[in-house]
Amino acid sequence: MEIDAAILKSKGFFQQAQKDKFSLRLCMSGGTADTGYLKKAVEIADNYGGGRLHFTTRQQIEIPDIPAENVEAVQKLLSDAGIKTFIGGPRVRTVVSCLGAAVCKFGQIETGALAKEIHDIYFGRELPAKLKIAVTGCKNNCARVEANDIGVRGVGHGYQFYFGGCFGHEPRIGKPFLPVLAKKEQVLSVIACTVRFFENNAAKGERLGKLIDRVGADVFQKAIEAAV
Questions:
Q1: Residue 157 belongs to domain with CATH number
Q2: Are 53 and 113 within one domain?
Q3: CA 177 to chain centroid
Q4: To 10 degrees, what angle do helices 208-215 and 217-225 make?
Q5: What's CA 161's distance to the chain center, in Å?
Q6: What residue spans of 26-149 are helical by DSSP H?
Q7: Beta carbons of 43 and 63 less than 8 angstroms apart
Q8: What is the dihedral of CA 185, 208, 196, 33, to 10 degrees?
Q9: What CA–CA distances, in Å, run from 198 to 71, 79, 150, 211?
Q10: Cβ-Cβ contacts under 8 Å for 9 (sequence gap 6 or more)
Q11: Which domain holds residue 24?
């Protein structure tokens, strides 16, 4: 069976160190899934993989050790069940979040619905480089928002933004640039403005933080202030 690893990667199957095996990443917005979804992941792992699940640092389920000859059957199962896979490359990645005020006694904002709304609008959108977004409910910062390109944190029942953070080979801490916002609609407007700015100005492979350095923090700040 001839394998095009690049095509499979675009569909959520990542080639392992063992060239004849793949690790499948499933998509979850906000790090939450119902039990039916989890049962389906277990079914795939038991019947087509190595019987293991891995939970990534970005709240995705990864199913390792899927032999190449099982990939087609897994793809059909995913399609029939309506389960989306992780999308990598120069695109908006899965939005991560903590449980927020709906569950956590420390939560200042309701994070799950906000993260899902952002995810539903932007997940998979083609951009010059990857763009990672996180939402966290309070100062405990369980979603590590300052380490994402766009981070939103609950502060006194308002929303504090952070821009330009990332992990990787050159980690950096995101900066606020805006005062605490009071309304969810302002949050969505600022994210829309930031995505447009990134889409229109970033060079290929240039993360948001590097773009801000290149064009100037004042230019970026002026652009996003117009969205508030």
A1: 3.30.413.10
A2: no
A3: 22
A4: 110
A5: 16
A6: 35-48, 71-81, 111-122
A7: no
A8: -50
A9: 35, 32, 11, 8
A10: 15, 88, 89
A11: 5-81
- For the four alpha carbons of 8, 13, 17 and 19, in that order, the dihedral sign comes to negative
3-state secondary structure of 62: strand
- 3 state SS of 26: strand
Assigned domain for 73 exists: yes
Residue 91 lies in a domain: no
Measuring CA to CA, which residue among 141, 71, 60 is closest to residue 93? 60
Contact 26, 64 (CB under 8 A): no
Q: Is residue 139 part of a domain?
A: yes
How do the pLDDT tens digits run along the chain, 228 residues long? Answer: 566 778 888 888 999 999 889 999 998 877 788 898 899 999 999 999 999 999 988 888 999 999 999 999 999 999 998 888 888 889 999 999 999 999 999 999 999 999 999 999 999 999 999 999 999 999 999 999 999 999 999 998 899 999 999 988 889 999 999 999 999 999 999 999 999 999 999 999 999 999 999 999 999 999 999 999
Closest CA relative to residue 114, chosen from 150, 75, 147, 156: 150
Q: Assess if residue 88 is contained within a domain.
A: no
